[in-house]
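Hi all, long-time lurker, first post. I run a small reading group and we've been trying to get comfortable going from sequence to structure in the token notation. Rather than ask abstract questions, I figured I'd post a concrete chain and ask someone more experienced to write out its structure so we can walk through it together at our next meeting. Sequence below, copied exactly:
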Amino acid sequence: MIEAFEATHPFQLLVQRLLTTAAILITALLVGVLVERIVLRWLNRLTRRTSWGGDDRLLQVLQGGVTTLWFGLLGVYLAVRGIELPIPYLNTTWTFQGIVLSSRHADYLFKVLLTILVISLTIAASRFVVGVAFARDASEHAALSIFHNIIRIVTYLIGFLIILGLFNIEITPFLAAVGVSSLAVSLALQETLSNLFSGIQIILSRNIKPGDYVRLGSGEEGFVIDINWRTTTIQQLANNMVIVPNSMLTTAIVTNYNEPQKEMGILVQIGVGYESDLEHVERVTVEVAREVLQEVEGGVPEIEPFIRYHTFGEYSINFATILRGKEFVSQFLLKHEFVKRLHRRYQQEGIVIPFPIRTIHTAHAASSAGPTNHQLEYQVASDCPNQKRPLETSHTSAEPAQVEPKEPQS
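-- Answer (accepted) --
Happy to help. Here is the structure in token form:
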């Protein structure tokens, strides 16, 4: 009876199957949207209570249209293959048949659907692995593009091999060709591979990480922005970029100001006059330093500042003031405020910061065009002329050169 209907009403049958196909696809897509909007969000609230971050990352990967895509692929598969729903109380089965394809065309379509599914699974798996691998310290590894790229390449390669297997393509010759070509590539790209493995060594050693402030032995310094498969990018405070090959970075002398911790001591060298009361100087200086650490951003007030006298200088007793900053760049603002406030406080307390005075005398020989003797005095002084300071004097004299007459040659 069904065959007779198909023979006598081909147009109606085509319309029926198209409508059935559309209904199956729309139903599958709606189910996918509902799963993403309701089920996954409900699961997301549950996974926030767990300590493992992998479940949160998995739900994050499944959102964004991936689940809807998978349900859409399922809808296409069911529309082509057909759906049989048994009805027990009628002892019959309802069959929902969409577009009918030949076995060969259906096989091609199923392989295309599986290919799309494998590609989407590969992308989702790479995102999940990257998220789980760097879930504990995402800020530290956010710029490690070398690890991201390696994980993606390995995941995509596995997905590519699975797709080759779906189309019955032999994988063994492909792997052999890859092995031979990799040998040739390794010989041609020795420097590139050296940088690649040096980058992996830098990351695994964890001595240098993105966000660290480093100084190279050659003098360049700045924040590490990225460590990729070939170079390490350093951003200077002047907003310039320094690109360092990884192989050079592994052999260079590098000072990392973020290790073993970001907090660091800040030294400010100061000198006071010999007539100063050193106990009073120490008390005033520590009070100003403590005030700066408490009020200026970047200071660590929990660590008590202190000073250490270390040198009897030519005109002052020198000492170092040690403050504590949260990170390397904190020292600039802390020093700025400390110097201003300490200078003002020393003036109030009558503490003298001495400096040398230099007088230069220059004498020239007499000449017919000018005076017989000329004296030039240059004095460098401060705004406080009453302060007592050592006087450094240097004399420079210039004598006219004596030229002996030459005897005439025969």
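A couple of things your group might point at:
Confidence is low (pLDDT under 50) at residues 365-410.
The chain has four domains: 2-184, 197-256, 264-349, 357-398.
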